[in-house]
């Protein structure tokens, strides 16, 4: 790695950090005894051949011992909280049976997976309690860390809060030959960053904690573990960081300002490795980093902080020397060219609290907000019209595609915004330009990934047509979903209370 520059900057606008929000919930130092980090097992395929992989993913309710005392009622995939890590190999045909054993409908959204709209798992594809469905697709995208989470409108935030989120890892032949840690569970682990508030008897209470700008809790929870430590037994450790929180931004740094190397972002390796001492993640963003513990000896404790709160410990043990060097180039972008005829699509993210909107509208399941042909490339100019003073960073996410970040207000993107991305934090009063193309047809959502903003209507949808195979897409309607939720919860539909509803009510809008 020839570029020795080490960045010590979070890059985003400091006045827009969540720490300045009126409703900010600071993280608190945990007084729980250190617990070994839960590293989710890899989900075992039901069957795997040279060409195909078969999985079953079950959304289920359960109880989890998170804190001393009473177990917490939680939801998860194939386990009581979060889920096992799902591995897809590039080039294989994937068959996933998704089963819903929850008391209410859900969807299975594969965040970052390059698939058609019917597989993507947005709000038009509910799976009702007791039902299952088989998803068939080919995995054809670069190695990356993706995730699976629930996405039923307008209850995405509450379901993710209950625990419906898990890491998905795509492997390919290119990544496989790079000198990177990849011994899962030993020197290559997912790190799902979330926060929760524990109420009486260690329970979560989404409605008590509800905030239209995003639900937060004072306790950092990493892979479902409070005050975790990880036993380091290798010189280099690869962390697949995911901001899986509903609202929280993570501003990460290690003790001793230990530098680390970011190797991957949302949807691929970065084009070049970048060295940092500080890294900010907004909701749903991923960063794979490699930490080199060569300067430490057995018995040392390296601490990971968010802002000034310790959230995780790395206990150093004996390890073998590993001075392998990364190549300068990790990934080559092969994206459609932009010409002066490339269409430009402007969109505006506005508001905070209940007033959030995209292009002055709240999400409507039955309205198509944009169209783009499969295979064609457009420049999306996305503006956050919040004020620099008092405004917030909105993490903008698109389903069904990756994008390349062209610039931020005409300036170069941040140094780790190379490679393929699907989520980008946009500062107040800033416009980012993205190169956007779709490889699959369908209806896809684009929205703020502060999940309460998404439920509150800061979301829109695009219809992507395959010009060679025109299709008619079925759109769900909100009444059908609301009636189903009401029935499942045993209440009249007028008495149904789902997170995003208050945002529409307050604006006198129908959901
Ligand atoms: Cu937002």
Give a description of the structure.
- This is Copper oxidase.
- Keywords: Metal-binding, Oxidoreductase.
- InterPro entries: Cu-oxidase-like_N, Cu-oxidase_C, Cu-oxidase_fam, Cu_oxidase_CS, Cu_oxidase_Cu_BS, Cupredoxin.
- The chain has helices at residues 117-120, 156-162, 173-176, 451-455, 478-489, 501-506; strands at residues 6-7, 35-36, 47-48, 52-64, 72-77, 82-83, 86-89, 93-100, 109-111, 132-138, 144-149, 165-171, 188-196, 219-222, 225-226, 228-232, 236-243, 250-254, 260-264, 269-276, 278-281, 286-292, 301-306, 309-316, 344-350, 357-358, 370-373, 377-384, 394-398, 401-408, 423-426, 430-438, 442-448, 459-465.
- By secondary structure, it is mainly beta.
- The protein folds into three domains: 6-22 and 179-316, Cupredoxins -  blue copper proteins (Immunoglobulin-like); 35-172, Immunoglobulin-like (Sandwich), CATH 2.60.40; 344-465, Cupredoxins -  blue copper proteins (Immunoglobulin-like, Sandwich), CATH 2.60.40.
- The protein binds copper (II) ion.
């Amino acid at each position: 790695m020839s570029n020795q520059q080490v960045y010590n900057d979070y890059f985003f606008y400091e006045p827009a950090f969540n720490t300045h929000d009126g409703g900010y919930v600071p993280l608190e130092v945990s007084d729980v005894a250190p617990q070994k980090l839960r590293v989710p097992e890899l989900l075992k395929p039901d069957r795997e051949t040279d060409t195909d992989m078969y999985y079953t993913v079950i959304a289920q309710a359960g109880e989890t011992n998170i804190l001393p005392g009473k177990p917490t009622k939680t939801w998860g995939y194939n386990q009581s909280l979060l889920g096992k890590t799902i591995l897809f190999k590039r080039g294989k045909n994937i068959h996933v049976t998704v089963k819903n054993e929850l008391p209410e409908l859900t969807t299975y959204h594969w965040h970052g997976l390059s698939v058609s709209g019917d597989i993507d798992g947005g709000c038009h594809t509910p799976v009702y309690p007791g039902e299952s469905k088989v998803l068939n697709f080919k995995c054809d995208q670069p190695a990356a860390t993706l995730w699976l989470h629930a996405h039923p409108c307008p209850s995405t935030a509450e379901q993710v809060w209950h625990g419906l989120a898990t890491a998905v890892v795509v492997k390919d032949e290119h990544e496989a030959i790079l000198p990177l840690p990849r011994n899962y569970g030993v020197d290559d682990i997912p790190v799902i960053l979330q926060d929760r508030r524990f109420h009486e008897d260690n329970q979560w209470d989404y409605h008590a904690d509800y905030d239209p700008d995003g639900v937060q809790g004072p306790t950092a929870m990493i892979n479902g573990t409070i005050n975790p430590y990880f036993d380091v037994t290798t010189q280099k450790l690869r962390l697949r960081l995911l901001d899986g929180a509903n609202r929280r931004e993570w501003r990460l740094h290690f003790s001793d300002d230990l530098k680390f190397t970011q190797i991957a972002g949302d949807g691929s390796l970065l084009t070049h490795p970048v060295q940092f001492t500080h890294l900010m993640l907004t909701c749903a963003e991923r960063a794979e980093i490699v930490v080199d513990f060569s300067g430490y000896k057995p018995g040392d404790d390296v601490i990971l902080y968010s802002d000034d709160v310790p959230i995780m410990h790395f206990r150093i043990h004996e390890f073998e020397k590993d001075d392998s060097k990364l190549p300068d180039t990790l990934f080559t972008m092969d994206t459609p060219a932009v010409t002066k005829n490339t269409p430009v699509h402007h969109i505006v993210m506005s508001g905070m609290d209940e007033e959030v909107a995209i292009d002055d509208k709240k999400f409507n399941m039955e309205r198509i907000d944009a169209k783009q042909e499969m295979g064609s490339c457009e420049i999306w100019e996305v503006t956050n019209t919040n004020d620099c003073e008092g405004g917030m960073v909105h993490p903008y996410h698109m389903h069904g595609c990756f994008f390349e970040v062209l610039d931020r207000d005409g300036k170069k993107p941040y140094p780790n915004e190379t490679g393929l991305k699907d989520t980008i934090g946009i500062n107040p009063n800033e416009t980012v330009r993205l190169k956007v193309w779709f490889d699959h047809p369908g209806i896809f959502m684009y929205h703020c990934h502060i999940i309460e903003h998404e439920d509150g209507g800061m979301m829109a949808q695009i219809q992507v047509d395959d010009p060679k195979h025109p299709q008619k897409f079925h759109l769900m309607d909100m009444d059908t979903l609301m009636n189903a939720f009401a029935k499942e919860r045993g209440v009249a539909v007028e008495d149904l209370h789902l997170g995003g509803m208050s945002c529409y009510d307050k604006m006198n809008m129908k959901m």
